[in-house]
Write a structure and sequence with these properties.
Blueprint (H helix, E strand, L loop, with lengths): L10 H4 L2 E3 L11 E4 L8 H11 L6 E4 L2 H10 L4 H10 L2 H4 L20 H11 L12 E7 L5 E4 L9 H8 L9 E3 L2 E5 L8 H7 L4 E4 L9 H6 L1 H23 L6 E4 L14 H20 L1
Parallel strand pairs: 2-3, 2-8, 3-4, 8-9
Antiparallel strand pairs: 1-9, 4-5, 4-7, 6-7
Helix pairs in contact: 2-4, 2-11, 6-7
Length: 297
């Protein structure tokens, strides 16, 4: 199992952290909020395994980007063990297919580096055929509308005019890497652009307790690594800085219902770390077990 070195200056952000006193005093089932982070989001599967072992079942799920995919699978009844099997079988060719026109002379005018079809087809393959109607636990996801910059929410009492597959694709259409989802004159991109860890949405819906799993990038990274990857590396680093600030502002200013905030140690990993999948799974499990241990102490 390969693991990149973790910057020890990030130790305060790499721990599982409990916010909002009274979490253990509220007996109703919590809502799970699963954030975005590329393949690092497979840590959600490990987190869900630890929560299942503890007998914690969600009252509802709000997921962004890969957190939306894991959340939808969980809502459809896919177990953490089944999710782990899917994660370990995942290969680059399943979701990444280079848009060759991006390498042409005017390739910079192409909408994305990768084609949409492999990712969307992969979602269609692993999700239940019944779409929204196959979900057993209330589930919401989000995407950002390029027309006005507003967040579109998909789920019960929200929009369900997109198929479940399309809603999940829209939520994970990372700018530059994947093309936006276009529908009726609008175009939708990764929901993490505005709400990378949508705790406020869970509170708005009525959550009495929240378990939020943050798998996004940390505050610091080696600039040489981003520069060495060219335009795409710099773009991704800028996107990471932006979403980090949004997540940090959200939990530092939190005044909503009692929340357990869990942050696995994932700093230093990129969005397509296929060689680190086993570590992501194990770290999500470890961090969640640690957080639950604090609740019991």
């Amino acid at each position: 199992m390969k693991r990149d070195p973790i910057d020890t200056r990030q130790a305060d952000q790499a721990r599982s952290v409990r916010y909002s006193g009274g979490f253990s005093d509220v007996q109703e089932a919590p809502w799970f909020v699963l954030g975005g982070g590329g393949l690092k989001g497979l840590a959600h599967v490990g987190a869900l395994a630890a929560l299942q072992e503890a007998g914690i079942r969600p009252a509802g799920i709000v997921g962004t980007s890969i957190g939306a995919l894991i959340g939808a699978l969980t809502s459809a009844g896919v177990t953490p063990d089944e999710g782990r099997t899917l994660a370990l079988k995942l290969e680059r060719s399943d979701i990444l297919r280079f848009n060759r026109r991006a390498a042409w002379i005017n390739g910079i005018r192409q909408v994305s580096l990768f084609r949409a079809e492999p990712l969307r087809d992969y979602y269609a393959e692993i999700l239940p055929s019944g779409g929204w109607s196959a979900l057993q636990i209330p589930f919401w996801t989000n995407a950002v509308d390029l027309r006005d910059g507003r967040t579109a929410w998909f789920g019960p009492d929200a929009r369900m005019d997109l198929s479940l597959v399309d809603a999940l694709y829209a939520s994970s259409a990372l700018p530059v890497f994947y093309p936006p989802l276009e529908q009726d004159g609008r175009a939708y991109i990764d929901g993490g652009t505005a709400h990378p860890l949508a705790m406020s949405k869970a509170a708005e819906i009525g959550a009495g307790r929240i378990i939020a799993v943050d798998v996004g990038s940390g505050q610091e990274a080696d600039p040489g690594g981003a520069i060495g990857q060219g335009m795409l590396g710099i773009h991704q680093r800028v996107f990471s800085i932006m979403t980090y600030r949004r997540r940090r502002e959200a939990y530092e200013s939190w005044e909503g219902p009692p929340m357990l905030y869990i942050r696995p140690r994932l700093d230093g990993y990129g969005p397509f770390g296929f060689e680190h999948v086993e570590y992501f799974l194990e770290e999500g499990y470890r961090a969640t077990k640690e957080a639950l241990g604090w609740l019991g102490s």
